[in-house]
Design brief:
The chain has 351 residues and is of the alpha/beta class. The protein has helices at 17-27, 38-43, 45-52, 71-83, 98-110, 124-130, 168-185, 187-193, 201-221, 236-247, 255-272, 280-291, 301-310, 338-349; strands at residues 2-5, 10-13, 32-37, 58-62, 91-96, 116-121, 135-140, 143-150, 155-158, 319-326, 329-336. The longest helix is centred in the middle third of the chain and has 21 residues, at 201-221. The structure holds nicotinamide-adenine-dinucleotide and zinc ion.
Length: 351
């Protein structure tokens, strides 16, 4: 078990084991809630129950999926906590992907003004990305993560064992954030990643710790997104637009799949700006090999650009990007014009 220490909590990487029981004993909690969805109840809860031994739990099951990351699911969670006489001296364990982590953390930190919670991320995406940074929340009025807060958990326990039941598509989607972390901050890891033919759990395990450390270093330098933390948005301005645009089609994209396409387009923009002189081709080839090509036509450009304008991370009417100077080095607050963005979409489509 490796431990990554942050200012006021730790991320434990490895089997659940003693660390987990230690937190339960130390807290001397009145009761323990575990929030799961139907998938993590079936695939992940048995492992946790085995480790918990005699400690009794109240299980709160919600329906999986981003569409349920909303206030009505929160109401369900709060109602169950209320019915059990929940309070500040209880503990919540969020056992699931980013949806459960964000929403369960939000519910736990607002119920009766807040109880302790432990994040137990079970997808690769939530292990390398949502596990650091203290962002909690839900979607509201069709805007992702528009209600929420920054609040750190009591601890994060990243157990790679959980990844074994994840679908290959979900695993590959989470891998996009590992690739992003290497492209913005770790050239050595980028070189190593390119050796991977097809993403497997063993690769994820190999890169987990370094990837978490990259995010930790960035978040610690800029906890409230004043500047540097924006480098984590690499691939996300165009990626989010592609993700939203595909949402109500017969071929929706997973987050990481959209970000992979976004990273190709934003690498192209980097080259256009005189950055990234050598590596565009390699980045494009590797991402296309792993993720294939997402199909969209010029008829979606206007909508995609409008979606990018709406992106809450843009302070002004101009479209703001994080660009790559070279693999391992990113620059935030880079501006691109609509015509240049359209050109980057052309570049992607012509591959
Ligand atoms: N707080 C943050 O900093 C942060 C960072 C990145 C993403 N997020 C949020 O995370 C969410 C996306 O997270 P996600 O990709 O983990 O999606 P998710 O939570 O929807 O999980 C994806 C699917 O995998 C299933 N699943 C989870 N773990 C499993 C396992 N071990 N075995 C089998 N099935 C499993 C889930 O039931 C779900 O169907 C978004 O809402 C996003 O906003 C938050
Ligand atoms: Zn992301």
């Amino acid at each position: 078990m490796n431990t990554i220490k942050l200012d006021d909590y730790s991320i434990h990487l490895g089997p659940l084991g003693e660390n987990f029981r230690g937190y339960l004993r130390k807290g001397n909690y009145n009761q323990v809630f575990i929030i799961v969805d139907e998938n993590t109840r079936a695939d992940c809860l048995p492992l946790l129950e085995k480790e918990a031994g005699e400690i009794p739990f109240e299980i709160i099951e919600i329906q999986s999926g981003e569409t349920n990351k909303n206030i009505s699911t929160c109401t369900q969670i709060w109602q169950q906590m209320m019915a059990q006489g929940g309070g500040r001296r209880d503990l919540t364990i969020n056992l699931g992907g980013g949806v459960i982590g964000d929403m369960g953390g939000f519910c736990a930190s607002t119920f009766k003004r807040g109880m302790d919670f432990i994040q137990m991320p079970t997808t690769l995406l939530s292990q390398v990305d949502a596990s650091v940074g203290g962002k909690l929340g839900i979607d509201f009025a069709e805007i992702k993560n528009s209600i929420g807060l920054f609040k750190n958990p009591l601890a994060v326990i990243v157990c790679p064992e959980f990844l074994k039941t994840l679908s290959p598509r979900e695993l590959r989607s989470g891998f996009a954030e590992v690739i992003k972390h290497s492209l913005i901050a770790d050239a050595g890891q980028w070189t190593e990643l390119q050796q991977i033919e097809k993403m497997e759990v063993s690769h994820a395990v190999k890169f987990l710790e370094r990837s978490i450390l990259i995010k930790k270093n960035i978040v610690e330098a800029d906890p409230f997104e004043a500047g540097l933390r924006k480098v984590l948005n690499f691939g996300h301005t165009i990626g989010h637009a592609l993700e939203s645009n595909a949402l109500n089609t017969d071929r929706p994209l997973l987050h990481g799949e959209a970000i992979a396409a976004g990273m190709i387009c934003e690498s192209y923009l980097s080259l256009k700006k005189g950055l990234l002189p050598r590596d565009l081709d390699q980045i494009t080839r590797f991402l296309l090999k792993q993720y294939g090509k997402h199909d969209f036509g010029t008829d979606s450009y206007q909508k995609l650009l409008a979606l990018m304008q709406q992106d809450k991370k843009n302070d002004t009417a101009e479209i703001n990007f994080t660009m790559l100077k070279s693999p391992g080095e990113a620059l935030f607050n880079q501006i691109a014009k609509e015509a240049e963005i359209a050109e980057s979409l052309d570049y992607y489509r012509q591959q």
